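Possible race condition, two jobs.
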Amino acid sequence: MEGGSVPRTTLPDLTPDRLSAESVSRLSQAAALLRKAERPVRVLRAVAWGPEVAERFFAAGETELPQITYPRMSAAPVHEVLAAARALIDGDGPVQAWLRRIADVIAISADMLQALGTKEFHRLSVQLYGSPDTDLLECDVTPLDLARQLDQVLSSFVGVELNLDSTGEVKTSAVDLGARMDGILKRHFGDSAPKIEIVDHLSANALAGSRYIRLRRAAVFSDRDLAQLVQHEAFVHIATSLNGAAQSAFPILGAGHAGTTRTQEGLAVFAEIISGAMDPSRLLRLADRALAIKMSMEGANFLELYAYFRERTKDKGAAFENARRVVRGGMVEGGAPFTKDGVYLEGLVRVHNFLRIAVQETRVDTIRLLFAGKIDIDDMPAITTLAANGLCVFPRFMPPWAKDLRFMLSYIAYSAFLNRMNLEKVRVHYKDMLSRCAPPVVDRPGPQAPDPGSAVDQTASPAGKDA
């Protein structure tokens, strides 16, 4: 052999990422069984409240705890299918570890739904979704720390004019919003575009599935809702659902089980930020949910949570919905919340940090593979192994900022340097300088031309709720 090189014919046996045909067959069968086990474990459907619960609550003068009856579910059939799947997962590679983790997640999810309305539901919820007290990447900070900081910083801007182009608060009906959204989605997804449905009864103002986005007919939407719904629900959640459904070798990639929620919601919130769709009220709402989960963990009941949200919103319907999200599936008496809504902030931190390191390590391939289906960041060794073996197809649908990474790469490459600076010294320097500035001027300039890089323009390009 010239130069001591290894013949290409021996590479499949020497490359650790190469899967044998027999292994692929067994693991693919296991993935299909995991998909079968996951299908009846519909968490959000099981914890949902009917519209009559809110009607009774308001009819009673907002003074009585809601009375909820949850469906009974047996986890035994799910565990039976999972046992068959586990029997097919042999070996210790990244794909095997990924499938075993999915099996564990589905098992815990089924057990959690079997415990609806109890403290055991909450304990299992923490296993799946973490809690506001979860340590973030062993960095001695928690989602609760982030929620408190966001609350402290953003609340101070209430009443401050932040949009100099604004001519007043613009409200849009569900019908008008749906019509505008429909055009954006058809340009982005083509024949696979989700259907816009205007419905009379919906617990939230908007709710998305893999094939639809539903809007509550009586709801009114702000000027930011269109961009946020498109970036979050369509360009991330629906895109990863459609891309996952195309993964025929490993259909479990199309399943939005609890093991993918942190990354999926974190990616969707990051999409709102990187596209310019995010606003302070939206970020405060995410922080409030984490704070309310902590309140419920410490014993606050539904009425106390409702009062907390009433202080923070003029809309009593929104206050009810926010309190409902915290206690759904758990106990309205307090002490046992559903912790899923804590993953928005935790997931955002995890996704943002992953993207920073992926850029530094020149692994932009992994950034785009985040959209290949319903996956968790920690699944990436398995996903790249599948891709290397031709078993994970490249995602067809991605948001504009992921298709064209030039802005994000530039932003992250620069912002990574800021972490090397002593932020406390920076804070002291500029705080001292600002303390010597004259008071703010209340006058505002006249209207300016719209920013061509705005979030609305991004959502309109052909190239973003359980939100």
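Job #2 (started ~2 s after job #1):
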Amino acid sequence: MENQNKNQIDVSVLLNVLTALKNGDTTARMPIDMTGMAGKVADTLNQIIINNHRIAQILWKNWPLPLTKKVRSAIA
């Protein structure tokens, strides 16, 4: 994180994480060393990303096979 103040959100980092998530990268995370309100925001966003990834895994695993094949071919 370029900003040395760990109590402030670096909007370029936030934008990078949100853009990666929008593009399907569920490994994107905010830095975990942030403090104060900025740290709470970062932790909350990270938890939302983790929860969405878990939900996607459950849905992917439990979709009917024909639908899964259609979805896989559509995104391939």
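The radius of gyration is 16 Å.
Logs attached separately.
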